[in-house]
Structure formats: C-alpha cells, structure tokens
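Quick one: structure for this chain?
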Amino acid sequence: MVFGQVSKSSVDRFVDVRISNESEEKPVDGKQPKHTAITHVKGGLPLPMSTDQVLDTMSVPDISKRVFKGVGLFIKSSNVLEDDHKGRTTKEMVQTQRINFLGLHIDFNYHILCKQDHNKGTMHFSLAKQGMMKTFEGDWTVSPITDKSTIKDLNSSLPLAAGKKKKEGTVSLTQPSPNWVYAEFRQKIEPDHPPPKAFNNFLCKVSNKVVNSVFDEMEKEGNRIAYGQPIHVDSSLDKVREKLASLTPLLVVGAGVYHLKRRGQKA
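Got it. Here's what it folds into:
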C-alpha cells in the first residue's frame, strides 16, 4: 500500500490467519528441517485517529495498557534506544500476554525490538530475546484516508454517542470530522516447540479471536477520540489487581516448591 493513498475499496476491516507446517529453514547435510507451525497473520481496519495516535497506541505502555487491558495483550514497558528527534525511534519493549487461570492472572513477557517511523507511518517489531518463541515479528503500516466520499461513509458508520442524533446519514460529532487512517497489520509467529498439525485449526481460531479483539479495542479508542470523550481512569481496585497479576507467577512457583518440600518431608 502506498503511504498517503488509500482507495475506497481498501478500507474494509479484515483478518486473515493461516498456518504453515513447512519450515523456512534449508536442509542441512541432506536432513530435512524439523516439523514446525508458522502462523501468518494479516489484517487491516479504518480508524478515526491520526497516524501518531495509532503508533502510540501500539507502543506507549500507559496507552497500550489502558486500551488493551481487556484483551490481555499490551506493552508493559519501553526503553528508547535511539531517537533522531525527527520521528524515527528504536525501542526495546516488553509485551505482556495475560492469561486467566483459576481466577488468577498470569503474565508471560516477550522482549521486543521495535523500530518506528512516524513520518512514513510504519512500525516494525521482532524478538529482542528468544524464549518460548523462535520467531515473533511483524509490521504496522498506517496510511491517511483522503477520499472525501470514503471519509463521509466512514463518518456515517461511527456509533452514536450518548445524546447524539443521526442527521441525513451523518453523525453529529462533539468536534470537527475526525482524521481517518487505514491501519494494516502483518505478523509471523513460530513457537520454539511447535504443536502437532492436528492443532492447526485451533491455533487459527485463537489467533483470529485475539487479533479481532485487538481491532475491537482499537475501534473503541478511535471512537472515544472522535467524540472527544474523556479517558477512563483505573480505580484503586484495578491497580491492586494489576499488582497481583505481576506477582502471580512467583506465587505459583513458591507454592510448587513448598508442595515438593512437604512431600519430601513426609517421605
């Protein structure tokens, strides 16, 4: 997609997930590479946001936690490695994947190297440190939508804010017509220990659900910006839950060690 040129037919939301079990590694000494499971994800959606707002949502911890907390996939921390002060930055980030288990939150962290160019509307990320993932990389490309007819259609598709009324197919906003961009997403994921092929359909459904959940939250944030609505502030209870989530893995390990010691004493 050429930056700055988005046609009317290319602004639909979509998500496409496919899994390949063929390794991209070349045979060594005549031996074929081991079985793998590479997940290829593509998606895109229109958003009533600026390019900077989209890229910040995907990389600034405070914004990412607020927008994607409900999805359980957000940027926990970020450290700027390079900044040319002209829109190009390189960051090392920690992305957290939160899983609910027996009513508790367990966090898994991935260390990611992220390169952003706000001038071109691009963001590339890849693994900074390997762990459970062998490959974890992708791109965001954000392009302004300039076609007036497309913008009019998108404005009319915005959900109504409280107390607002639709007039002649358009929505009365609390501020001038918002900027519209098209955000396109591509990602490749390969676990270090791939599951059997029988799990391909299950992995596709899970990945599709996660990406669509991320897109849902991005749309909600875009609508909040379009209507000029205030940012929700976490309650004290939310902050306590956040702290407990970071401690849960330590508590689980501690309980396991204690259980093993008890078994040893009984023996």
